Amino acid sequence: MADSDTITRSAPDTVKILIAGGFGVGKTTMVGSVSEIAPLRTEERLTSAGLGVDDLEGIEEKKATTVALDFGRITIGEDLVLYLFGTPGQQRFWFMWNDLALGALGAVVLIDVRRPETSFAAIDFFERRDIPFVVAVNGFYGEHPYPPEEIRDALALPEHVQVLLCDARERGSCRDVLIALLDQLIASAVQSDGGGRLTPGGP
Amino acid sequence: MGGGDTAGRLVRPFALTGGRTRPSRADFTLITTVTAVDPPPTWATRPQPEHQRILRRCAEPIAVAELAALLDLPVSVVVIMLCDLLEAGRITLRPPHPVSRNQDMNLLQKVRDGLGRL
C-alpha cells in the first residue's frame, strides 16, 4: 500500500463549539447531556512563561498551574466530528479562552438566573472578539422565573443574539440550544453572502 | 550524572519529554486529529514506552484532547511527544476544519442536520 493511502485514512474533519459561563453554572452538565461519550477531562499546564505578571494575580505563589477542561464529542457523520469544550469557570483563567476560542464555530454562554453576573465575563469575551454566541439560561430545578426578553434587556444583548431557556440536564434541551446557535450562524452567513445563493433549511 | 535531585520523587510529566516544555511544531490544536502510520516507516527506530502508548491509542484517528484525557497527561506534554512522533514519521495529522469570518455554509448546514438527528 502506498504511503499516500495510509495518510488519508479516514481521519474525520473536526469542529468545536465552546460552552462558557461562570463557575458552577452547568457547563459540564450540558456537555455531558449531549455528548456521545462521558465528558472527558484534560489538563492544560500553564506556566508563568509567556504570561504577563498581571495574569498570575491570585496565583502568585505558584510558578505553574493546571487548568482543567471538560469536553465531549458528537459524531455528525463518518467524516465530521463536533467537539464541545467547557471553558474554565474561574475568571482568572480567561487567558486560556483565547486559545480555546481560536477556530471555534461559536459559543453557548450559560447563565444562572440566580447570579447572572458570573457569566458577564464570558459575554464580554465573545462580544469583543466577534465570536458568535447564543445565551442559554439554565433553569435550576427546571424553573424559569424570568422570560427571555427580560433577560435580554438585563444583559443588554444585541437583537441578533438569541436568548433561550434551557435545562442543562436535558439532552433535548441542550440539543435545541446548539441548533439555535447553528441557525444563528447560518443566518449571518446568508446575510454576509449578500442574500444568499444558499438558503437555510428552516422557514 | 545530574538529575540526582529528582531521586526518590515520582516521575514528573516533563521528565517524559526530556525537560522540553515547548513543542517544536505549533500545529497541534486540541481538535487536531492524529493517526499512527501503519505500517511504520522502514527507517523507524523503536519508540520510547510513552511514545508507544500514544501510538497504540492512535491506531484509529483520535483528537489530541481525547488522547491527552485517555493518557491522563497534560495536553502540552502530549503535544511535545506528538511532535517527536511526527518528526519520526510515525503519525500523520489532520488539522481541524478552518473557521473564518465567512463561514462555510455547507459545513454549518451539515452540523445543523447532524444535531437535528440527535
UniProtKB/TrEMBL annotation, chain A:
Key words, A-Z: GTP-binding, Hydrolase, Nucleotide-binding
InterPro entries with a match to the protein in the record: Gliding_Motility_GTPase (IPR052705), Gpn (IPR004130), P-loop_NTPase (IPR027417)
CDD domains: Ras_like_GTPase
SUPFAM superfamilies reported for this sequence: P-loop containing nucleoside triphosphate hydrolases
Keyword GTP-binding: yes
Highest taxon of source: Bacteria
Similarity field: Belongs to the GPN-loop GTPase family.
Protein name: ATP/GTP-binding protein
From TrEMBL, chain B:
Protein name: DUF742 domain-containing protein
InterPro entries registered for this protein in UniProt: DUF742
Species annotation: Streptomyces cylindrosporus
PANTHER family: DUF742 DOMAIN-CONTAINING PROTEIN (PTHR36221:SF1)
Pfam families in alphabetical order: DUF742
